[in-house]
Amino acid sequence: MSSLQEGFGENKEPNSPAVHCAFMWSQVTRQSETEKSRAVLQMDVFAVPGDRHKGWYLSLMAPNTKGPEFAWLDPSRLYCNSQALADCAKDLLSPFQSDNIDLVAGIDAMGFILGASVATALGKGFLAVRKAGHLCVATQGQNYTDYTGKEKTMEVRLDVLRPGLRVLLVDQWIETGGTMKAAIQLVEKLGATVVGVAAVAIENTEGGRWIKENYKFSHCIPEELQSQIDGKYLDSFKTANN
């Protein structure tokens, strides 16, 4: 995957969006791939670079500023940029171009946004995998432990999934893998087939590795940034928090 730095280099017009990006790291146009991965940029939320390399939108993610009771970053900032959201959905679908997908299912709650965008890009319908107690129709439930260690239950309606239906599961982020594993079990319990799993990031936890080992998957994180994702801290946040 191309570095996030690319597309913001030399020869840009003075009034182009790239020039007006609010760089939170100094721009360096000639670097090794490793150096570039440390220079992740946090862009103006509506800026779009002239050369949109795969994963360019990751620089729109925002760090946690509220403390340890919250997630360590907020990927949803990139959804505010229409081009970023469209490109993210396109990149997540790239590994599945040759696969037959009948339906996209997104996990409550942030998986709804990304999942619906992926479904629209694919031209398929969208199924909401809900937290228990929100659907007013007959449902199938599945217990699980989420990334915070809390015991929860998710559910889906009974009038959609059936044997032979091929489903792509989407969530915003896979940390411990417990939530996605439960969604997989729920889909398969009703006889449908999980074509694959897609998320902005899949951390290399035990659960994340289980998903990667057992199902086709896609994510948006370049190899040179995976260790930072696993460590729950991007180098770019050093400046963002100053």
UniProtKB/TrEMBL annotation:
<keyword id="KW-0328">Glycosyltransferase</keyword>
<feature type="domain" description="Phosphoribosyltransferase">
    <location>
        <begin position="88"/>
        <end position="225"/>
    </location>
</feature>
<comment type="pathway">
    <text>Purine metabolism; AMP biosynthesis via salvage pathway; AMP from adenine: step 1/1.</text>
</comment>
<dbReference type="GO" id="GO:0005737">
    <property type="term" value="C:cytoplasm"/>
</dbReference>
<keyword id="KW-0963">Cytoplasm</keyword>
<keyword id="KW-0808">Transferase</keyword>
<dbReference type="GO" id="GO:0003999">
    <property type="term" value="F:adenine phosphoribosyltransferase activity"/>
</dbReference>
<protein>
    <recommendedName>
        <fullName>adenine phosphoribosyltransferase</fullName>
        <ecNumber>2.4.2.7</ecNumber>
    </recommendedName>
</protein>
<dbReference type="InterPro" id="IPR050120">
    <property type="entry name" value="Adenine_PRTase"/>
</dbReference>
<comment type="similarity">
    <text>Belongs to the purine/pyrimidine phosphoribosyltransferase family.</text>
</comment>
<dbReference type="InterPro" id="IPR000836">
    <property type="entry name" value="PRTase_dom"/>
</dbReference>
<keyword id="KW-0660">Purine salvage</keyword>
<dbReference type="Pfam" id="PF00156">
    <property type="entry name" value="Pribosyltran"/>
</dbReference>
<comment type="subunit">
    <text>Homodimer.</text>
</comment>
<dbReference type="InterPro" id="IPR029057">
    <property type="entry name" value="PRTase-like"/>
</dbReference>
<dbReference type="GO" id="GO:0006166">
    <property type="term" value="P:purine ribonucleoside salvage"/>
</dbReference>
